[in-house]
Amino acid sequence: MTVFLVGFSVLAQADVTHPLPYSDPANEGAWIYNERVSDEFDGDTIDEDRWFIVGKFEDGRPQYIHPDNPNKKVWKGRAPSQFSGRNYRLEDGKLILETRWEPDFPFSEDVPKPHFGPSVPYENITTACFIGRREFKYGYVEIKSKAAPAEVASGFWSMGDGLEFDFYELVGHSNDPEKNDYLDSLLWWSIRDWKVKPYGKPTYTEKRDVGFNVADDFHIWGVEWSEDGIKYFIDGKLFSDVSAEDAHRWALENRSMPQVPEDYDGYVATVPIHLWIDNEIFPWVGIPTSKEELEAGSPPELRGDGVVDYEIEYVRVWQTHEQMKQSAITANP
Ligand SMILES: [Ca+2]
Ligand SMILES: [Ca+2]
Ligand SMILES: [Ca+2]
């Protein structure tokens, strides 16, 4: 009888058409692939019911209108780079986000005041941004990707109500030889609170060397996220294990000016999120000032066109039965 039940439960859970988390090939977590928010990027076109492509062109101008909330102010990118809806392609089952040296782009005249870093105009460089249109809360989020080998951040992150949850912001190359070895293998991930001053500062963050150059090859980044905390996996191996209590403690110890109240709960990753995949120039890291500088980290055969690639094989989200039920209750249609 026991044998029969074990066999039955394996059959019920195994699904030949859906992959399993790389760190859990036996599916001990009973993960169910969430088709609504995952994307294998194996088709010929982007499913725009799934993704908002920021800065799509209409009448020769990039448009910044959110399809689900036309009155919402849409961020145009981290200046000097601006999001362009032209900066992607689908190739060999991958989504390729392009950062381009494009001085002739019809850049916005706004000079944004960022929360962090200097105020600089939009100029010279365009990047891509995909925002998931459907939300979910808790689960196992995995991306197989290769960062751009350039002085531009390749990002995989998310936003929820008052929450920013950054899975990674990878800089594959720095034009400063003294910083390059540090930056090209640095994982920076954070939970940020946009509801409490100082807005957008981390309530938990880690900056750690992953031991390889993030732009050299594809790697699998997995984040198991629940109300109890976060387990971070790289290429199937546990890299970081942070309980909700750890995040709570970190916030109380590190959040000052103003100091957060004693009863502040730093584990703010407790609301539904929308996924973001994008490239951003981080002015505090460095700004490429020419086509040559943008492509300085590229292999010689890929230099000269003024384009660098951030490659994404897939984005997958799994949830437990209970998490899926909860997400379905709160999700947008
Ligand atoms: Ca794929
Ligand atoms: Ca390094
Ligand atoms: Ca190139």
UniProtKB/TrEMBL annotation:
- GH16 domain residues are 20-323
One Gene Ontology MF term: hydrolase activity, hydrolyzing O-glycosyl compounds
Top-level taxonomic group: Bacteria
Q: Which InterPro entries match?
A: Beta-glucanase-like, ConA-like_dom_sf, Glycosyl_Hydrlase_16
Point out the signal peptide segment. Answer: none
The record's comment on protein family reads: Belongs to the glycosyl hydrolase 16 family.
Q: What is this protein called?
A: GH16 domain-containing protein
